[in-house]
């Protein structure tokens, strides 16, 4: 069984997104850590969208 790298990217991006949102909710402001997590999740989502666009037929 091989691990799909896009699935790993999606799972890690989702976890980072949730952690970033929880940080914003906890501190009631956009902390640097939350900003980093949300930006990384956004980059991962952009990569996944680009890959999906490349592989559409």
Structure report:
Helices cover 82% and strands 0% of the residues. The protein has 57 residues and is mainly alpha-helical. It has one domain. It starts with a helix and ends with a helix.
Quick summary of this structure?
The chain has helices at 5-27, 32-55. With 57 residues, it is mainly α.
With helices defined by DSSP (H or I, 4 residues minimum), what is the helix count?
Answer: 2
Give Rg in angstroms.
Answer: 14 Å
- What would the principal axes of the Cα set say about the shape? elongated
Q: What is the chain-wise order of helices and strands?
A: HH
For the sheet with most strands, the description reads: none
Spans of 5+ residues with little confidence (pLDDT < 50)?
Answer: none
- For the record, the count of structural domains works out to 1
Separation, N- and C-terminal Cα atoms: 26 Å
Number of strands: 0
Outline the fold blueprint.
Blueprint lengths: L4 H23 L4 H24 L2
Provide keyphrases for this structure:
single chain, 57 residues, mainly alpha, 2 helices
